[in-house]
Design goal:
By secondary structure, the protein is α+β, with helices and mostly antiparallel strands. Strand 1 and strand 2 form a beta hairpin. The strands form 3 sheets. A 5-stranded mixed β-sheet has the order 1-2-8-5-3, sandwiched between helices. Strands 4-10-9 form a 3-stranded antiparallel β-sheet. It has a two-stranded antiparallel ribbon with strand order 6-7. The N terminus is likely disordered. It has 13 helices and 10 strands. The chain is about 45% helix and about 10% strand. It has one domain: Cytochrome P450 (Cytochrome p450). The chain is globular, with a radius of gyration of 20 Å. The structure holds protoporphyrin IX containing FE. The site of protoporphyrin IX containing FE has 25 residues, from helix 9 and helix 13.
């Protein structure tokens, strides 16, 4: 269903990204002074060169002129630099090893099927309310091995998991349905060949990246693109733009579930690369396979205007009514 009403809000940033990549790929905002970066090569560098582009919440707050780290996520590894980042990441990464994550598959499958049990007979659901929201939050809320973090760090990490691990995965599942709705042949191809499922998930991550951008602050003067940037400058690296950059992805605006290679930056780059990536990929794979098993016929998003979530950094919709059947 390709009504402009629903496509427009999702497409809007991509038009702007395209223009900025072509005309002002490293751009300083005239009012607030912060920098925005749009090309794949520059976004990758900002995300991964942590000595020059810091994630430190306190440094960022000072550059913005605010009082300090009022943001509870300021105590999470997402907003820390080495060496404390390395210490904490080593600790928590034990819960996210491929073996630990693989062990969750039966439980994720059971939760997914329980959620689909409530809707299959009706022939319709709100993808966000009935599946994409409750699945990741239920998986995350179940006990993890007890590890030792300070109380503040523990609270920061819980907050990070709730935001970083839930809304993002919710949006990945919702955005996947939007991609399929725009490309109805894909569902039939997936039904015929389940080996294409991982590629469909990777292409959704690239095409409608659930995290639009991440923020850094410069520690020193540096050259980015053709711009000289001083120290203590806020930089937004637009992941959603990097993932549509023609210089990296031929025919970048085409949704191609067999795209190879697909070196998207939807999970970031470098030392902050998403810890939950294996879990998000597994949840998406289980959910998509269960939907392919249990929701027959044509999947169709309702012909109503879809409302974007209110977020500077996340891309997704608030509600996503869909039907299936003959
Ligand atoms: C589709 C789903 C997801 C997307 C698109 C996503 C995206 C990202 C991105 C872009 C970063 C890098 C941030 C930066 O460089 O500043 C990140 C970091 C992180 N993500 Fe995810 N994420 C997802 C799911 C999850 C899940 C399910 C969890 C945990 C259960 C999680 C936990 C984390 C953590 C702990 C970090 C911080 C890593 C660090 O700073 O070392 N994420 N994520």
């Amino acid at each position: 269903m390709q009504t402009p009403g629903y496509k427009e809000p999702l497409y809007a940033p991509f038009e702007r990204y395209r223009m900025m990549r072509a005309t002002q790929p490293v751009f300083q905002h005239p009012d607030w002074g912060g920098w925005q970066v749009f090309r794949y090569v520059d976004v990758s560098r900002v995300l991964s060169e942590h000595a020059t582009f810091s994630s430190d919440a306190r440094r960022m707050a000072q550059s913005e002129g605010s009082q300090g780290d009022a943001d509870p996520l300021g105590s999470s590894i997402l907003q820390m630099d080495p060496p404390r980042h390395r210490q904490l990441r080593n600790l928590v990464s034990q819960a996210f090893t491929p073996r630990m994550v693989a062990q969750l598959e039966p439980r994720i499958t059971a939760i997914t099927n329980e959620l689909l049990d409530h809707v299959t007979a009706a022939g319709e659901m709100d993808v966000v309310r009935d599946l994409a929201y409750p699945l990741p939050v239920t998986v995350i809320a179940e006990p993890v091995d007890g590890q030792r973090l300070s109380t503040v760090e523990l609270l920061g990490f819980c907050g990070l998991l709730l935001v970083a691990g839930n809304e993002t995965t919710t949006n990945l599942l919702g955005n996947m349905i939007l991609c399929f709705d725009e490309h109805p042949d894909v569902v039939d191809r997936l039904r015929a060949n389940r080996a294409l499922v991982p590629g469909a998930i990777e292409e959704t991550l690239r095409y409608y990246s659930p995290v639009k951008g991440m923020t850094r602050v410069t520690t020193t003067e540096t050259i980015l693109g053709d711009q000289r940037i001083g120290p203590d400058q806020i930089i937004i690296a637009w992941i959603g733009s990097a993932n549509r950059d023609e210089a990296e992805f031929p025919d970048a605006d085409r949704f191609d579930i067999e795209r190879e290679p697909n070196r998207h930056v939807a999970f970031g780059r470098g030392i902050h690369f998403c810890l939950g990536a294996p879990l998000a990929r597994l949840e998406a794979k289980v959910a998509l396979n269960a939907m392919l098993d249990r929701l027959p016929g044509r999947w169709q998003v309702a012909d109503v205007p879809l409302e974007m979530i209110n977020s500077f950094i996340l891309l997704g919709v608030k509600k996503l009514p869909m039907t299936w059947g003959a």
